[in-house]
Write a structure and sequence with these properties.
The protein is α+β, with helices and mostly antiparallel strands. About 35% of the residues lie in helices and about 45% in strands. Strands 2-1-6-5-4-3 form a six-stranded mixed sheet. β4 and β5 (about 100-110) form a beta hairpin.
C-alpha cells in the first residue's frame, strides 16, 4: 500500500508540473526508454506512440502548437501494484479550427524504480478528431 501511495504522489507531481508548464519537471519523472501512447486518429496530430524522452518532448511540442488547454482536471487516482490509473476531464481549443472539445479521459501510468516507464491515454477520440476537422 505504501508503494501505491508513493506512485500516486509521483503521478500527482507530474500533473502539477504539467499545470505549471514545467515540461522538464515532467520529463524528470520518466525513464529514458519510456513508452508514451496517446490514442487517436491522424487528425489528432499529437496522437501516436512515442519512445524515449526526446519523442515525449516532441509530443508536448506538438500538443502546445495545436491545442490550448483551457481546463485540465485529474479527478480520481486508482493505484494497484506498479500502475496508477487516473480519470479526469479537460477542455481544449483546437488552434487551427477554434473548435472547443470537452473531453473525459483515462490515463494509465506504469512505474518501475520510481519512474514512469509507460503512459497510455484513452479519451473520446472522435470528439477530439471532429474538433481538429472543424466539424
Amino acid at each position: 500500500m505504501v508503494k501505491e501511495q508513493e506512485y500516486v504522489r509521483l503521478v500527482q507531481e507530474i500533473y502539477a508540473a504539467f499545470g505549471r508548464g514545467d515540461i522538464p519537471g515532467v520529463l524528470s519523472r520518466l525513464s529514458e526508454d519510456v513508452e508514451w501512447d496517446v490514442t487517436g486518429p491522424r487528425e489528432t496530430s499529437y496522437a501516436g506512440t512515442r519512445h524515449g524522452k526526446s519523442q515525449v518532448v516532441e509530443f508536448f511540442t506538438v500538443l502546445g502548437q495545436t491545442v490550448e488547454v483551457q481546463q485540465f482536471e485529474p479527478c480520481e487516482f486508482i493505484a494497484q501494484a506498479d500502475a496508477v490509473a487516473v480519470v479526469g476531464r479537460e477542455r481544449l481549443r483546437v488552434k487551427a479550427t477554434g473548435r472547443i472539445v470537452v473531453n473525459e479521459w483515462v490515463m494509465i501510468f506504469t512505474l518501475r524504480n520510481g519512474l514512469i516507464v509507460k503512459f497510455r491515454e484513452y479519451d473520446d477520440t472522435e470528439a477530439v478528431a471532429a474538433a481538429f476537422r472543424g466539424s
